[in-house]
Write a structure and sequence with these properties.
Strand content: 25-35%
Oligomer: single chain
Order of helices and strands: EEHHEEEEHHEHHEEHEEEHEE
Radius of gyration: 20 Å
Distance between the termini: 41 Å
Number of helices: 8
Helix content: 40-55%
Number of domains: 2
Structural class: alpha+beta
Strand order of the largest sheet: 1-2-5-6-3-4
Amino acid sequence: MAEHNEPKQIRKAVPVGNPQYFDDRTALHLVQAFAQEVELDALLKLLYSQLKATSELRGMQYVHQALSVDLSFGNQDRHTADYNLSFRELQLGKLILYFARRQSDESIQTCEDLISMAFPSLRNAVTVLELRGKAPQGITAAEQQTIAEVAPLTREPKTDALILLALDDYPDIKSRDGEEWAQILMSSVHEQIREGLRQADSVYHIGDDLIAVLLPHTTGSRAENVAKKIRMLIASLHLRGDEITEQLTACMGMSDATSAVTAEEVMEHAKIALATAQAEGRNQISIYRAPESSPATLRLVEGGAD
């Protein structure tokens, strides 16, 4: 629980990947917008503008001592919300939000939702900035791959794919084991997927029971292969009840921006594909296709049935 003090409001960490105060289509649009900014200053400027538009924010400051970065936007004021950001062993700096007066929990949570949606892009921007400061001979092959994953620095959202994922039997698990355990389970699945994919990919919750995965520079068969990989990552997690081990499975719906004009359409297509997968049974993947010369089609990926 956050600690509220006068005249400051202090936050130790921000919950990553679970926006509560934005609808799913708006969340996707924001995640896409943040993902297009790999330069740290441009990304922070975009985050500041979104925070200011949705809250009473007066100013914002970002400090990363190890990288000698200290960027300020707007004006400082007497009330603050401070966030020490990190991902695994990677320190991502400190973010300070300034307000003229004490903010409600809902206002702070809205700001944290925006920070959580920008978090994967912030992680990428800090990583690239850190690697740029190293001598070329000191960069490992894995670090070169990281730079390649988030490059080029400017790109078109038309190359993005979206996967929506729903755990099979999630309502039954929630009813049987309780809401707290169900949320722990969703967080475990979220973390498993995030650790198994590229650093450039964004993983976040939608509502109570869906996980969304945004894949930059990934369409067609490459996106399909990622969906299959996610299926394997989920299969490696098990529920332990009494003396049996229950393997987790999930249905997935996938769409990409090649068949859509707006982020809203991409989300809607993914939802249609997910509903088709769920209608076919457990552990299914459905892909939304919209050829130019014919109506939209849905294709099931082989090998999903138990």
